[in-house]
User: Which sequence fits this backbone?
């Protein structure tokens, strides 16, 4: 089970790095999700840029290599095309983690972006 979790996380990360986006119509564009700094010492800033207002919710998880959540899941509404969120990572140990950002659209479809982050 552990191996399957790691393989799933790696495949999601590879898809996100390769720029794979969900299937959709010609006007559908996946959100652009950026995070910084990396490595992070205290707070991780996450920016979500939308091409249209079809995405209305975001969920941010920070998980360890075993898939365990390290901080409470951040759930926010998206307002406008440019959104910024901060995640406090002061209380987690130094190491490697995955940030999973899932945006949900008004029709119920979703897009997940994963990225490896380092905590110093």
Assistant:
């Amino acid at each position: 089970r552990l191996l399957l979790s790691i393989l799933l996380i790696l495949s999601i990360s590879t898809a996100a790095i390769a720029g794979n986006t969900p299937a959709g119509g010609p006007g559908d564009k996946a959100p652009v999700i950026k995070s910084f700094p990396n490595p992070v010492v205290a707070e991780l800033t996450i920016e979500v840029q939308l091409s249209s207002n079809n995405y209305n919710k975001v969920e941010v998880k920070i998980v360890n290599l075993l898939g365990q959540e390290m901080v409470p899941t951040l759930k926010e509404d998206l307002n406008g095309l440019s959104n910024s969120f901060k995640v406090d990572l002061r209380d987690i140990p130094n190491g490697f983690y995955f940030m999973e950002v899932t945006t949900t659209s008004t029709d119920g479809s979703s897009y997940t972006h994963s990225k490896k982050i380092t905590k110093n």
